[in-house]
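ok trying this again, last paste got cut off
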Amino acid sequence: MKDVRIIPIILTILISCVLILFGCTAENRPEPENVDSVPKNSDEYHANLRAYKKSPHQIAFGWYGPSGLSNLEASMQNRWKGIPDSLDIISMWGGFPEKDSPGYKEMKFVQEVKGTKIVRVEFTDEAFFDKIIKGFKATYFDGQTKGKLKEGFDKVAKILYEEIVTNGLDGIDFDHEPYVCGCNTWNITKNEDDFGLFIEAMGKYFGRVAGTGKMLLIDGEVNLVPTDAGKYIDYAVAQAYGTSSPQNLQDRYDNISSWCPPERFIVTEDFEKYWKTGGANYEDPINGLVPSLYGMAYWNPTQGAKGGAGSYHIEYDYGNYPGYKYTRKMIQIMNPAPKSK
């Protein structure tokens, strides 16, 4: 005869195991999920995702190192589809994949189906201008009038616009660092008036005034953008690397507040250096000591809500557990998911 007393014991053990299993699964989910949400990767899911990205919210931004890979690698760290769905803008730090390659097709899926904006990144140095127009420096800058320089800028802007349209990208991101990193090698990038002329020329095809739908971002030393030129720019992206306090972020914003409304200001951390910890130690007035990426997500200028936050070499965060741990938390801080009903 069977001992019926064993059955309740077995049931208790089974139920406990199930509860532990589901509890651990929920705890390790990369992003909070709403029980009323539609199935992930369904048409409705992607439609909702695109609608979210078009809605008013603080955006998630990142420079993506593997952007130019044409072949699909085994690691999702180097795959476009490995990027978090809720990321709003990717700046292609690694260049453009070969057209119609597997990497290109994944990029287009992320852009067209998931609604992520993808922009080209360039330094504003001599090599860039001479790449667009051979001999640009000698023809339009050395010993030339401002009118001649402006003519050259107009030609560069038109060529860039045609290239962006041809490649189906959403805009351009200029890394403007004439002093900090030594990236720029000639005076045009050190002279604010000349740089303002360049932004004005770009503003005919890109940014808030052009009406083409193509974005214009400036990152790096955004404090060197002339006030009159700021009206053309969609986002000023501050490289606030290693930030430890809200005051540092506020000071960065105050330096450009004459032309940049708070909703057009993005702050970023360096994940090439800080990916394992989510940034430097940041003292948040409400949440205490947190990784600086979280501090950036919590922070807003005293003048109003910021435009968003992000990181340089965002793909390094894939190496954390769960993948893109800090990026996903950053997004949730800025834009909390709806609570389950």
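PB: full thing came through this time. The mean pLDDT is 89.
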